[in-house]
Amino acid sequence: MSALAAVAAYLLGSISFAILVSRAMRLPDPRSYGSGNPGATNVLRTGKTLAAVLTLAGDAGKGWLAVWLASLFLPASVSLVGLAVFLGHLFPVFHRFVGGKGVATAAGILFGLDWRIGLGTVATWLIILGLFRYSSLASLVSAAFAPFFTALLLGFDAEAACVLVIAALLVWRHQENIARLIAGTETRIGGKKEAS
């Protein structure tokens, strides 16, 4: 059952709301402009706030839904399901295994594990964004704190290990952003070149 749940979660994660919302609202494919990343930040570049909000809600929602369902029916598989839905977002089978960076989906997973972890991580993201106005930096700092929040609230168990792996993958997906931050060429939120 755990293997089936993981496969189902991976398939759910493979649904790209950036692409679905863009098609439904007759917007350009998010992979064809800006950072090329199918995520809410890039969709926002179209100037359609509603499209970005729907993308954010969909990507976060699928992460939360997968973990919530697992907690109800297969509690022992929660960490496996959380990782599977995240991998689906990063490497979607429906889109030639080229997906987003996973920030919204990771947030949904954290809320599914424990609302306090999700809230603490989102608060960290908002604080860093407010101070520095770099979406990528906010995501990276939040990823660093998420495993700490999880271990603090739940103990260092399978869930904390899952969040640690997700955080490492999220940082890996932000390699280009890290290089630009170090070089001082990353544009702040609202700029034309910011690519989180």
Explained architecture:
- The chain is mainly α.
- The chain has one domain.
- It has helices at 2-13, 17-24, 40-43, 49-73, 78-90, 103-113, 115-132, 135-154, 158-173, 175-183.
- The longest helix has 25 residues, at 49-73.
- The radius of gyration is 16 Å and the shape is globular.
Largest sheet: none
Which stretches are low in confidence, meaning pLDDT under 50 for 5 or more residues running? Answer: none
Question: Percent range for helical residues?
Answer: 55-70%
Total separate domains: 1
* Global Rg: 16 Å
Q: Provide a count of the helices.
A: 10
Which short descriptors sum up this protein?
globular, 69% helix, 10 helices, 196 residues, mainly alpha
Helices and strands, with pairings:
Blueprint: H1 2-13, H2 17-24, H3 40-43, H4 49-73, H5 78-90, H6 103-113, H7 115-132, H8 135-154, H9 158-173, H10 175-183
How would you summarize this macromolecular structure in one to three sentences?
The protein has 196 residues and is mainly α. Helix content is 69%, strand content 0%.
